[in-house]
Amino acid sequence: MRFKVTVVGAGNVGATVAQRIAEWGISDVVIVDIVEGLPQGKALDMLESGPILGFDSKVTGANTYESTANSDVVVITAGIARKPGMSRDDLLFTNMKIVGGVTEQVVKYSPKATIIIVSNPLDAMTQLALKVSKSSRNKVFGMAGVLDTARFRTFLAQELGVSVRDVQAYVLGGHGDTMVPLTRYTTVGGIPVSELIPEDRLKTIVKRTQDGGAEIVSLLKTGSAYYAPSAAAAEMVQAVLLDQKRVLPACALLDGEYGIKGLCVGVPVKLGSQGIEQVMQIKLTADEQAALQKSANSVKELVDVMASKA
Questions:
Q1: For this structure, is 76 an active site residue?
Q2: Residue 210 and residue 157: Cα distance in Å, rounded?
């Protein structure tokens, strides 16, 4: 018996998440979108690639949530995409309404599902979904750190001319320009990155990581990133479905960890069949802790604005 995964949103991110998951062959996939015919058409197209790629996953599209019932994992990508010149904060009010409504429907039909938020602004939307779902923090969390860390690892690998597989790193904090790449914990083949890249050059790479999403938006001009975000979400889905106990950065509700309470912020967690099974606490320097707190404060500002509009 295969697992069941629902992806809400049939745009570029959602459709690519669905495609990646379907191609593993371990899960059936339901794609939900409000646009009539869009999820059905994309689902059928994916399904017809099965004979070529060798997967038997059932892929279906729907405009309502009945067919999502009893999903094991739900990935929420619904919402408007960021446009050139638009910050993630600008997305807040529109996507707040969308994600809130989607979460209500998801929980109605799949009350035991693990929910992974991809919609932006990521940290605020995760906080909202947690509140609306009334679920525990281990079952609702956000994808951001995996993506930001992948970007950081990519840039470091390019700088050094090495395989990305040998670059280990973590990016913590909110999904925005206040994110905190932890260079002190970054290694290449086990070698501290500070021994391989001069400090000024490393700072430039950190800045590029923080602006990673905006860089792609400026290049595309009429869209935003989706290949890397979908890969990041799919990795998290796989960790849950296969109970892999992966240690990955995720946007999680903190309860005193890192001196932060009641906010969804990116930190390392252990992901398995129960969702977030442990928040991994690592020692931070005073500067790193201050940077993480600054990032958390940025998240709190959005959460407070949402609360004022509720």
A1: no
A2: 17
